[in-house]
What we know:
Blueprint: H1 3-20, E1 21-24, E2 28-34, E3 37-43, E4 46-49, E5 55-62, E6 66-76, E7 82-93, H2 96-101, H3 106-122, H4 127-132, H5 134-149, E8 154-166, H6 168-262, H7 266-287, H8 301-321
Antiparallel strand pairs: 1-4, 2-3, 2-5, 6-7, 7-8
Helix pairs in contact: 3-5, 6-7, 6-8, 7-8
Amino acid sequence: MNPFALLIMLALGGGVAANSIRIINQGDEALVETLGRYNGKKLKPGLNFTVPFVDRMVYKQTIREKVLDVPPQQCITRDNVSISVDAVVYWRIVDLEKAYYKVESLQAAMVNLILTQIRSEMGQLELDETFTARAEINELLLRELDISTDPWGVKVTRVELRDIAPSKAVQDSMELQMTAERKKRASVLTSEGERDSAINSARGRAESAVLDAEARQKSVILDAEAEQKTIVLRAQAHRQEHVLRAQATAEAVEVLAQKIKTDPNAREALQFILAQEYLAMGRQIGESESSKVMFLDPRSIPGALESMKSIVGEEADNQRLG
């Protein structure tokens, strides 16, 4: 055999053998058509063999989860505000046959579907709701996209709105609104602070006035009590003085009375003492608030002396008994 022909046959045989061996990496799958028709033959990860010139690997794709970056999209909210929205979609192929034969370009179809769903959902919300209800929007987009892509053999696992940006004019209006709101809050807080300060000041003045009044009241009461005690003590001292004087007078009269029995000249001394008591009584009557004019008849002094003697004696007896 011609060596050249042998080399050609070996080269052809090696090419055919190489064309029949397919190695699929872990996490990937591939579809094989036989004479242009898919008969359900799918290549799994590892070493696979196909029939040369009959089988053809038409589609190879990973079945791992992938990330689809959705570009920014202009949307109009329900209150006619223009905003720019972009998103990130996490998805994976669960049925390679549907992903290839049910749609021509899977990724382009998904991008268009996602953009349409985002426009639809944003058009149902007002501007403020797009910022506060982001989690609800993500859940709604996930549910709708998962249902829409199920015929394509795709499972959407997560949808995240990455950025919601209003137009420059809207941002300027929002900043003005926020500035006005902050000023309003500052004014309210300032007025509340001033009101609380005024209330505290008035309450302090009222409490101070009450304390002053209570202090003055206590001072007046203490002064009255002190004056009352002083009057009582003075009255007691005055009474005690009169008692002592009455006792002394009674004792002196008694001594003189005994003396008169033995010495008649002692009567003059007794009359002198009684005259002094009579005059003292008149002076006391004159010093009292209900003063009256008292006329003293010298001729009545001896009788008055006798009466004073008896009165002083009785008063002394009463003091001793008391």
